[in-house]
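User: For documentation purposes, I need each entry recorded in a consistent format: the amino acid sequence on its own, followed directly by the corresponding structure tokens. There are two entries in this batch. Please keep commentary to a minimum and don't merge the entries.

Assistant: Recorded as requested. Entry 1:
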Amino acid sequence: MSSVFLSHAHSDKPFARKLAADLRLAGHNVWIDEAEIKIGDSLIEKIRDGIDQVDFVAAVISSASAKSKWVTRELDIASNREIKENRVVVLPLLVERVPLPGFLEGKLYGDFCDASSYEASLKALLKALGPAMKLSRPAPDEIKRLRKELAEAESALKRHEATARGHEALALRGKSKKLVEAIREANKKFPQHAPINNTYAFEVADMPVTLDYLLWAIAKAEHRGGHPLEILISIEEKWADAKAMINAYSDLVNAAGATTSVKRSTKGKSAVFKRRSRGAKRNR
């Protein structure tokens, strides 16, 4: 049994999911981003971990993947492993008639361009992956039951997403377009901050302040003895907004099971930040 990382562009997701299902049915372990990366994970670290822990990287090659920075990065990591370990790691799988990337030239590839040759190409890929214990297919009634449960789960997920979008729209109502854009960008990078940003993010001197930026500024202030954000918050008297954001984040961390020392440490940083700013204001 081998473990496989499926490197693919977003537009090739339908093919990747079908291939992942067939490889799993054949008894192999498959790492595919939508299943393995959870909210709050570092995308780069999780992908690197995934590539480092598998036997092979199956690269779905198409016109879209050739332009994808993520696919290029994944293949760079995998190619370095191939050189270091002196064995085949990258398995190119063509789904479109496009040239192979330079560092894959000369490699044998799986030809999945024609749907009619899918089974033959899959068989060749399975041979390259090596032996595995094939899973038995469920009975037709079992498949029918599983599909019904899956449909119900997908329906519940869609309702949840619709409700979440409604809550977000309500929380962002009244905020400037610039602040809303900053909040959404920050929430993409730090999804765990969304409950705080949606409610407590604010602007100072026409500059959006999201939780990640405020925490970064506080850390800089502690190490360097000051940060421009301190002065701006003091000038515009936005300390109540900053304190509300930090307190809400402390409560969130505490509720998630963190120790009270983490909560006190976060509040302590905010207090140091504020005391320095007050001193700076008096000395101007």
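Entry 2:
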Amino acid sequence: MSDTPYSAFADEPEIKEVDYRRSPPTSPHSYEETNSHFLDSYDTPGMPICSSDVETASYGYGKWNNELYSFCDNFSICSLTLLCAPYRWSLTVSSASLLTFAVAFLIMTPFWMIYEIGIFVQFDTHIKAINIMLAAAWVSCALLVTMLGCVYRGRIRDQYHIPGDQCEDCITWLFCPCCAIAQEAKHIESAEDAQSIV
């Protein structure tokens, strides 16, 4: 009989401490394989890795982040739209990288001015032909303003994957151009602020 004292753990294999940070396990389901998505999120610069970051990164996509008639929610945008709508619209489309500010301002301003003058000033020259020409000029400018607004509202929707159609955009710009300008401006500014956090 052996003089070696009996130990219940004599036949147990030696347990070695493994630093998984330096030498990951080599089992079929290794550390890298089972956590590849998690590791990739750290390896990819700028990729959100928590739920709050995901919400921030996707903010502004899929729907308008403000209602059409929430016109006075942002005082600076509201006042600038009322005082100089072409300027505010040009800021929006240039921020969305659709046009340069100068081009947008030069395109919209003359049509908008004639459109606004025709709304608030009634011209009556007592000459039927001239009255018809003035009315035709006003209608043409109103249609051009609506067309410009409709086209670039559609491009903003496409850029942020917002559902809608051209008919809806035209109706919005035809009857509520200032509300449309303010909604687009608030959406672009909010989306840019959210993306700058990521």
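Summary note for entry 2:
The two ends are 72 Å apart (CA to CA).
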